[in-house]
Structures are given as C-alpha cells and as structure tokens.
C-alpha cells in the first residue's frame, strides 16, 4: 500500500477546523470571477475565443445553384442513356451568367460554376463522351443530379453560430463564408505568472549555495497557455516586500489575472500573502486538498490574484484545480474542467483525512475499462510524478484507504492515453 508519506512526504499537520473544504473554496473563487468584457476581433484572431453575440447569415450560402462536379449541364428531360446533345459553351468556376441550355443542348461545366439557365442537372464528365461539338451520355440524368442549390449550406436569416460558442476552425470558416469581417468575443485573458523567493535561480544561472532552479514560473505559464490564456512570465521576485509590490503593480497595468507561487505558507519570509492583502482583499486560506493546502485568493483592484504554494507539484495541482477553471471562466467558457474518466486503481493507496488528495497516475486500457497506477513517490516536490502522469486521480475526503479494484475519478492532463 502506498503510505501517507508516499502521498505527501512533508505533511502539514493542522486542526481540521482550520481547513476550508475544497469544493466550497472552489465555488467561492469562481463565483467572484466574471467573464472579460467582449471586444471586436477579426475572424482569424477570434479563433479559440467565445462568441459574445449571435451570428445570423445575411444571405444564402451558396448564393446560386452551382455544379457539384466537372461535367455537362443539361435538361434532365433531354438526358436519357445514350442521348447525344450539342455542346453550346463552357462555364468555369467564378464565371458569370451568359449561357443558356435549350432543348437538345449541353454546356460544359466545372465544379463550382453557376448552373446555366434552363439546366437542372449535371452529368459527370466520367460518363460522357464528347466528340466534335457533341456529347453522348452513358448515364441518364435526373433533375437535381450533381447540383448544389442556392442556400444548400445556409439560408438567408439562418442563425449560424450562437453566443457562448467557442470558435473552432470550422466556425472561423463559417464566419468568413457569411461575410463577417469581425465578431465580438470574450478575449483570451492575459495572465502574469511570477515566482517569489531568494532561493530561486533562472534555469541557466549558476547556483549559489542553497539555491534551486525556478521551474514553477515556466510550468505555470505553460499551463496558462494550455488553458487558453496569453501568458507572461515575470522575472523572479526576491523576498522583499517593496520589490513584490512593484512587481504586482506592474502586472496590474496589463494583466487580467495574476498567479504567484511561493510565499503563502506560514514561514517568516512568506511575504506574498501579506503584500497582496495590503494591496487588495487577497486572503490566505488552508484548503482541504493535498498537495496544495496553503492558498491565497482575492483581488488587487480589478485583477484577480492567486497565491499558490511553492512546491512544484503543489503549484501544478493547485493550478489545475483552481486557476485553470478561473481562466476558462474569464473566457466565458462552459467547459471549465478537464475531461474525466473513471478508472480502477491497481495499487492500494492511503490518503490523509479531511483532505481531497490528487494522485498522479498513469492510465492503461483493459477489457473492463480504464486502470490507474500511481507514477511513483508522490511528494509535493517530485515534479517527475507529474511528468510521468496521464491524469490526477481524485481521492475524496471520506476515503483514507483505496484498495486495488476500487474506482476513482481521474482528471485527464492531456490527450496521450
């Protein structure tokens, strides 16, 4: 059995009465965050954003009857098998009017070209033999064959996209097809990520005694981008109240959301919670989750601020559980959460009381469904446990022991399963 020490080697022993339930805390956070105000963007720039208005087609698409393939435009009444017709012209895609099909006649036509007056069918070129200005049909034609009628895709006045829809590639194409130069959307939020702590060094800097490399700001900025945000990584901020205040003020000038990591626990140099509280209403809490118990959230001016713990796995999990849905909320998205699956646990695990724990697990598929196995030691400083993971298995507060064969909900971290 995976021991509690394996789930988190350095436990914070707290009075359960000091803990706020994770579900209640998450609801409290999300209820305070409103979607960003809509703005007008060009159709391509709006890709990935959420529509703030309905889109109605002003005209039919296509706007005229046209050929679905290369062939001969004919009158179906003149086109039985082995009929021989006079070829009186040719129409290419993009051609205007100017041809008419009369009795016993055909017009050579290309895919997308407008159907000439009098024609009601197209015979494919593969079943027609043209010679010296006449064409013999090896297949009979019926009215409507291989014709795309006007409005086949969209009729004038159709609602083509509704407010609240996140624009995918096909949606961008539809906007262009109905003549939209731009559209009002909730924009991608701008997120500033900053790590705090004198012990941190940039990845390529030489390490002084007692220093570690700053991985959190890179991890969190990448997570913000994966969530749909425009992410900016702030240079490391020292354990200095004035330096931290200046950094937050700088973020306030151009960010929609701030994420800090480190400085929210109970140590003497954990200044983030104090500085943010003095600048706004940011409040430090002990949340019933593991990893990630010490949390801070609130606003500095109009900017929501998250203070996440400094251990790499704690920061990662906290982002997934709390910050990711907040970013999606800013975007006005309905899909706040990662996809989830139910998976049977292959190894026994223990989980601390009074906390929801998130195990990093690998998934594999068997005949009876998904199975999950922890990625190894689960300490909050072991980033490798996340690198090797397909998802986060959620162990509720009322399950301190999970036996092999029991099922857990797994929050997927990507598409690699």
Account of the 3D structure:
The chain is an alpha/beta fold and about 425 residues long. It has four domains: about 5-40 and about 185-330, MoaB/Mog-like domain (Molybdenum Cofactor Biosythetic Enzyme, Chain A, 3-Layer(aba) Sandwich), CATH 3.40.980.10; about 55-60 and about 155-185, no CATH class; about 65-150, Molybdopterin biosynthesis moeA protein, domain 3 (Beta Complex); about 340-410, MoeA, C-terminal, domain IV (Beta-clip). The chain has helices at about 5, 20-30, 170-175, 215-225, 240-250, 270-280, 310-330, 385; strands at about 20, 40, 50, 55, 65, 70-75, 85-90, 105-110, 120-125, 130, 135, 145-150, 160, 180-185, 190-195, 200, 210-215, 230-235, 255-260, 285, 290, 295-300, 305-310, 340-345, 350, 355-365, 370-375, 390-395, 400, 405-410. The strands form eight sheets. It has a seven-stranded mixed β-sheet, sandwiched between helices. The model has no long low-confidence stretch (mean pLDDT about 95).
Total individual domains: 4
**What is the SS-derived class?**
alpha/beta
CATH superfamily placement of the largest domain: MoaB/Mog-like domain
Distance linking N and C termini: 25 Å
The CATH topology label of the largest domain is: Molybdenum Cofactor Biosythetic Enzyme, Chain A
Show the helix and strand layout.
Elements: H1 4-7, E1 19-20, H2 22-31, E2 39-42, E3 50-51, E4 55-56, E5 66-67, E6 71-74, E7 84-91, E8 105-109, E9 121-124, E10 128-131, E11 134-137, E12 147-148, E13 159-161, H3 169-177, E14 182-186, E15 190-195, E16 200-201, E17 212-213, H4 216-226, E18 230-233, H5 241-252, E19 257-261, H6 272-279, E20 283-287, E21 289-290, E22 294-300, E23 303-308, H7 312-330, E24 340-345, E25 349-350, E26 356-366, E27 369-374, H8 384-387, E28 391-395, E29 401-402, E30 407-412
Parallel strand pairs: 1-20, 7-8, 15-18, 15-19, 16-17, 19-23, 21-26, 24-27
Antiparallel strand pairs: 2-14, 3-14, 4-13, 5-12, 6-8, 6-9, 7-11, 10-11, 20-22, 22-23, 24-30, 25-29, 26-27, 26-28, 28-30
Helix pairs in contact: 4-7, 5-6
């Amino acid at each position: 059995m995976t021991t509690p020490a394996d789930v988190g080697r350095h436990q914070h022993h707290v009075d359960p009465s000091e803990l706020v339930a994770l579900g209640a805390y998450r609801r409290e956070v999300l209820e305070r965050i409103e979607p960003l105000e809509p703005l007008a963007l060009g159709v391509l720039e709006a890709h990935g954003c959420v529509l703030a208005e309905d889109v109605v087609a002003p005209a039919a698409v296509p706007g005229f009857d046209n050929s679905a393939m290369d062939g001969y435009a004919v009158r179906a009444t003149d086109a039985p098998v082995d009929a021989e017709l006079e070829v009186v012209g040719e129409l290419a895609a993009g051609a205007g009017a100017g041809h008419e099909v009369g009795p016993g006649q055909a017009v050579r036509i290309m895919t997308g070209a407008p159907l000439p007056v009098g024609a009601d069918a197209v015979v494919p070129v593969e079943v027609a033999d043209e010679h010296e200005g006449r064409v013999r049909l090896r297949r009979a034609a019926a009215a409507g064959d291989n014709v795309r009628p006007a409005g086949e895709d969209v009729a004038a006045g159709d609602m083509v996209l509704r407010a609240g829809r996140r624009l995918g590639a096909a949606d961008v194409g539809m906007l262009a097809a109905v003549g939209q130069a731009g559209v009002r959307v909730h924009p991608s939020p701008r997120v500033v990520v900053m790590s705090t702590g004198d012990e941190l060094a940039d990845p390529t800097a030489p390490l002084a005694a007692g220093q570690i490399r700053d991985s959190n700001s890179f991890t969190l900025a990448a997570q913000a981008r994966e969530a749909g945000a425009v992410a900016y990584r702030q240079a490391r901020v020292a354990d200095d109240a004035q330096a931290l205040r200046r950094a937050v003020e700088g973020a306030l000038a151009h960010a929609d959301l701030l994420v800090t990591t480190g400085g929210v626990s109970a140590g003497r140099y954990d200044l983030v919670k104090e500085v943010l509280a003095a600048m706004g209403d940011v409040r430090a809490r002990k949340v019933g989750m593991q990893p990630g118990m010490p949390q801070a959230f609130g606003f500095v001016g109009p900017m929501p601020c998250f203070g996440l713990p400094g251990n790499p796995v704690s920061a990662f999990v906290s982002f997934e559980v709390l910050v990711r849905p907040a970013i999606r909320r800013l975007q006005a998205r309905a899909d706040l959460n990662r996809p989830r699956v139910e998976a049977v646990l292959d190894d026994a695990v223990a989980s601390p009381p009074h906390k929801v724990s998130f195990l990093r697990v690998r998934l594999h598929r068997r005949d009876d469904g998904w199975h999950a196995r922890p990625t190894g030691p689960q300490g909050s400083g072991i980033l490798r446990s996340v690198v090797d993971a397909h998802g986060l298995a959620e162990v509720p507060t009322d399950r301190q022991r999970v036996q092999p064969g029991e099922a857990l909900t797994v929050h997927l971290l990507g598409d690699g399963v």
